[in-house]
Amino acid sequence: MCGRVTQFSRWEEIVKSLGAPSAEVSPRYNISPGTPLVSVRREQGVLRTEALPWGFVPAWAPADEQEGHANARAEGIFDRPTFRDSARHRRCVIPIDGYYEWKTEGKLKSPYYFRAADGGPLAVGGLWSLHLAADGTHRRTLCLVTVAPNREAGEVHARMPVVLSGADRQAWLSEKAFAAEDFARLAVTAPDRALSMHRVIVEKPWGREIWYADQSAYAGKVLEVKKGRRLSLQYHERKTETLYLLSGKVLLTLRALAPGETPAAALVTAADQSVWLPGRSVHIPVRTIHRFEALEDSVLLEVSTPDLTDVVRLQDDFSRPARD
Q1: Contact 290, 252 (CB under 8 A)
Q2: Cβ contacts of residue 309 below 8 Å, gap of 6+?
Q3: Which of 133, 125, 131, 58 is nearest to 91 (CA)?
Q4: Which of 70, 152, 196, 235 has a beta carbon 3.0–4.6 Å from 33's, enabling a disulfide?
């Protein structure tokens, strides 16, 4: 299934590319079923961009029906009365920046975030319905259509949403009555490597990282460091980053390498260290040795270039390798 999506940055590019009207909505980073989700549909020949409740209720459901379906499996959809009519006549495109999926790891469920490999938005295939509610009003609802996963999605979950590209987006929005073959031609698994993913919460020996952005131009995360623990003494060959101390108290080690200086031979002294209180920030260029040590439980905000694996450890309290 697909249980959480985001609409906060580039999703509106999909709306514009479809020639649909824009929607004035606030950025949303964790949209769940049961709440409104912006979608594009064609109704009576007119493209409409509107936030509809995420929870598909078929037209023939009882008037007081409240609980809807978040997802619809593409396989055999014309054999299921719940979705058959909408699969034939009422399809929509849900423009998103990415989506979350959970993977069972031992006794824990860990969230992963998926987005387009090129950093752009995703056009997800959906269905919408028109249901007569108990108060006599017509209520439109929607769901996402899912298929078997590609290689990346399959590492985390057994399903993934239908991702539409190019002319398939307009074809999906057509008011042409689809036969099962028409639907199956478009509701297919995205090619391998079409998506990138990262674990949202990463447990570390010094605390944990919480990722909130992984874009083609930048990445962002929250670092929660436990009192008495410290990150490795490290530097980056390509990555640049800026960090801000939100709470706590840390000891920062910071030493820029001179041109031609060998990192392993560099000496770090007390003159390279300073105590930080909340509100301090620092920009760390490439080839700058640095380390944060938490004197109290501390929270740091980091924004960096997207070179996520570029770290060279010179010292590490937890015996991790020099390079990931």
Answers
A1: yes
A2: 324
A3: 125
A4: 70
| pTM summary value | 0.71
Residues 47-102 have pLDDT tens digits of 999 999 999 999 888 877 778 999 999 999 999 999 999 999 999 999 999 999 98
Instruction: Sketch out the chain's domains with CATH numbers.
Output: 4-101+120-196 (3.90.1680.10), 200-315 (2.60.120.10)
